[in-house]
Specification:
The protein has twelve helices and 13 strands. The strands form two sheets. Strands 4, 5, 6, 7, 8, 9, 10, 11 and 12 form a nine-stranded mixed beta sheet that branches. Helix 9 links the parallel strand 9 and strand 10. The protein is globular and about 60 Å long.
Length: about 375
């Protein structure tokens, strides 16, 4: 028997989607930001803002990926009930398959849902907590002494953990910087290491580490009591990740750029990782990743998203993990002066901050709780 089509839900909430609009913005960076995972200095920082407005005058906003491929699909949402989140998720999944990753629209819909229902997103997602501990995520490669100085500053600011980058060309040089940090801070900070072997930018053609390379690095990280090693192998090397996980005491983390939910499922059920890191701004949105987060927890894994988009993306990920998950800490991109809150969150009226004890505190404001700096967006608009 053929399945019956889903009935329209456009009138149930008393609101209809009137429009979906997208704008693109560019902040010049001088001096440039030299990201460890990019061989090109970054001379600007782009942001895409998605707005979903209703016939009743409410507006939900989200940000993250560039919404490539969405143009021409607005009619699939206009006229629909904004609270039909699972319906919208299915449409976005279809767009993802045929075109691009348009998940910031899901974040805007969740912001809008919170405003319609008068509740913060963390409460709609389960209400487990209204805060999550942040770990400072560095982005640059510094010499050993400077890396140790930065770690001391992070500790003084209340962060419980810091993530360091490997990508100096020879992993032995990376280990030297890690040794300097451990020597300086002792065990007052948890140290995380991002090996950045899972993917490459279009212009970078270096191969990922082999399993033997990753295992040699893991032995050094064990010695230095590193909490996790992130992306030690190519994203598709599930067998290698599984074997590495079995061979080392260091937690294996992956999944930040994984495209499909079934790939995340396979990482979980295949015993490939200890820590799963998909980002709601890049894959599945909140609607998709809430089910992945539950699956990870049912397999006794840590779910803690990647968050390197902007403060709006960090906020959306924080709502998911605070409301639903037992997450030890969440990524907080912060590496001043190269990557400051002013640069990261230029589209917001107030940057997202961690308090003196390293907590991201979410408010009771309906939706995501952030607000756009309309003047700055006007000044930085491109296209």
């Amino acid at each position: 028997m053929n399945a019956r089509p889903l009935k329209s839900t456009r009138a149930l909430s008393g609101h209809k989607i009137a429009a979906v609009s997208i704008s693109h913005h560019r902040l010049p960076l001088a001096p440039a930001f030299n990201a460890s995972w990019d061989t090109k200095p970054r001379v600007h920082f782009d942001a895409t803002i998605v707005r979903v407005s209703t016939d009743t005058g409410l507006v939900g906003v989200g940000s993250g990926d560039r919404m490539l491929g969405f143009e021409g699909h607005e009619s699939l949402f206009v006229g629909q009930d904004p609270l039909a989140l699972e319906r919208h998720y299915r449409v976005l999944s279809n767009i993802d398959f045929h075109y691009g990753r348009c998940w910031p629209l899901d974040l805007a819909l969740w912001d809008l849902a919170g405003k319609i229902l008068g509740q913060p997103c963390w409460k709609l997602l389960g209400g487990l907590s209204n805060r999550v501990r942040a770990y400072a995520s560095s982005g640059t490669l510094r010499d050993p002494a400077a890396q140790a100085d930065a770690a001391e500053r992070y500790r003084a600011q209340g962060f419980p953990a810091v993530k360091l980058r490997f990508h100096r060309g020879d992993w032995r040089d990376d280990v030297k910087a890690l040794e300097a940090v451990r020597s300086r801070v002792g065990e007052k900070l948890e140290l995380l290491v991002d090996c950045n072997q899972g993917w490459r930018l279009p212009w970078d053609t270096d191969a990922a580490w082999s399993f033997k390379d990753a295992l040699a690095v893991a032995r050094e990280l064990e010695r230095l009591k590193v909490y996790w090693m992130e992306e030690p192998l190519h994203r598709a090397d599930h067998a290698g990740m599984r074997t590495l996980r079995e061979a080392t005491d260091v937690r294996v983390a992956a999944g930040e750029m994984t495209r499909q939910l079934h790939e995340l499922r396979d990482l979980i059920t295949g015993g490939c990782v200890d820590v799963l890191q998909p980002d709601v701004a890049l894959v599945g949105g909140i609607t998709g990743l809430k089910r992945v987060a539950i699956l990870a927890q049912e397999h006794h894994l840590t779910f803690t998203p990647h968050t390197w988009t902007n403060g709006m993306g960090v906020t959306a990920n924080a709502h998911l993990v605070a409301g639903l998950c037992d997450t030890p800490f969440l990524e907080f991109p912060f590496d001043p002066p190269e990557w400051s809150l002013a640069r990261r969150d230029y589209m917001m009226t107030e940057p997202l901050k961690a308090d003196r004890d390293g907590w991201i505190n979410l408010s009771d404001a309906p939706g995501m709780g952030y607000a756009l700096d309309e003047g700055r967006l006007l000044a930085t608009r491109i296209g």
